[in-house]
Amino acid sequence: MNIKKILLNDIAYALEKCGLDKSAAQVSFSGKPELADFQSNIAFSLAKSAKRAPIQIAEVIAQNLPESDLYEVSVVPPAFINFKLTDKAINEFANFCLKDEMVGLEKLEKPRKIFMDFGGANVAKELHIGHLRSPIIGEALSRLHKELGDTVISDVYLGDWGTQMGLTIAELEDEGHLEFYFGRSSEKEQITLDMLNIAYPKASSRKKVDPAFKEKAAEYTLYVQGKKQPYYGIYEEIRKVSVERIKQNYDVLGCHFDLWNGESTAQPYVAPTIQIFKDKNLAKISDGALIVDVSEPGENVPSGKFDENGKELLINPMPPVMLQKANGADIYDTTEIATINMRYQKYHPDEFIYVVDNRQSGHFVITFRAAKKAEIVAKNTKLTHVSYGTMNGTDGKPFKTRSGDTIKLEDIINLIKDSAKRKLEENGIVGDDELALKIGLAAMKFGDLSSITSRDYVFDIDKFASFEGKTGPYIQYTGTRIKSLISKAGKYTSGVCVYGADERELVINLIKLNESYYSSYNEYSLNSLCLALYNFCATFSRFYNNTKILTEKDNSKRNAYISICQLALKAIVKASNVLGFEIPEKM
Questions:
Q1: pLDDT confidence of 405, banded at 50, 70, 90?
Q2: End-to-end distance of the chain based on CA atoms, in angstroms?
Q3: What is the sign, positive or negative, of the torsion defined by CA atoms of 29, 32, 34, 35?
Q4: Domains and CATH numbers, the chain
Q5: Lower Cβ count inside 10 Å, N or C end of the chain?
């Protein structure tokens, strides 16, 4: 039972009856809930073509609506058509949702196949705070798409093939850890994560001041890409050690992937992908490198001005895609396009969704254009980059340790867990690490997802972990309180009957909550769902505080009250699951 769809169909019926375009039908939630539940502003847009005053159009539409016992209609100046749901509509919808597995949420009419790329961890590097938002946002978007009926294939897409591999191997060799691999020792030293945590940062700094080391690392990178031994064998060992820890971190976050591929997985597709560009005469040599021009009309326009080196400046400059360096090495853009080629050939998704921070926006613009230009994907295949902002501290700067270092992912999980433990201790629950982790994850995820994805946001541990206000723990606490109430209620007859304004408002907010799933789906951002879920929980809290539920002497009312609690719990559990956290049994 979709209330909004019923209203839309009735408005379309009235428009057709009036000789107007029925496809123009629209309805939204009322901006003045004290007057109406829904409103339609359609009369304003139709007035000009109909050559009549908006208020006249609104009155004619209202008069031609089919008879219904689900709503009362009124027209108010300047030309709003207002709809107030009847008690019958409220009760029917509530009871339908109570029995419905989807709690009234309808799946998409045309479900699609979605390939999602999120995670973004790099082999040989410790996961840090910069890797936090991608799995949180990506996992929630994946769950949202599945909830609405899409088929989702998710890939962690590890950074396991770039320059960092050559740098790490070169540094490990110089530190004497690879003697066995190069035949200089009979004893094989185990490569460890601690070893990698030291080697890569050191190598990354060293390449800036040591040209010979930088050249050796570049050479080793080519050896790895060519699967030359012992370099490729060392690479495989580094990858294995790194992936074990990466999986542990993602498991703690509750983030799961169908595929554990990386840049290396697409390597067999690199040469065929480059050949596609060559065969279609899209690639050309520039300064020894193989490039593809992806500029569009209005871009790369000569300005008539020159820089200090005599090179002409361009209006709306758009860099080309570089397929190969002058030395023949593959680069990030090449691997990205080859990966799109591989994924499309294997899965043929309707849309690719990449959840990667906004610093990579330029990279995705040119690689997506190149993939489309070479017809590596079908014309109607969507290529979407969901870009996210920076996670900042309360000082407004990127979140770091006191010493200024980038904080490790597992450390930030422990920080938020410790904050949750302190809150639990205030409630008399001591030493429950598992519960503290559940609450900490809810705090962290809701804090992130309630912000518009593309924007930076402030990571405030104490605020996020609060059991009050617009937080994950508040959502959990509301659900936990309902679980406790239902457990104490004992036997009751299930069935909602709305008696007061609080219950009515809760059902209206359930309609809004269900609508927010579609908003979040279309916006590629979970903030609409988070806000609607918070408003739903806040409305339930008012009902809970204003109503004597278990002690109600009228058995019919008591049954109805407990039933609406059951309905509320179902809705909260469903939305929380999409956001990626659980409702615990106690708090």
A1: low
A2: 34
A3: negative
A4: 3-85 (3.30.1360.70), 409-579 (1.10.730.10)
A5: N
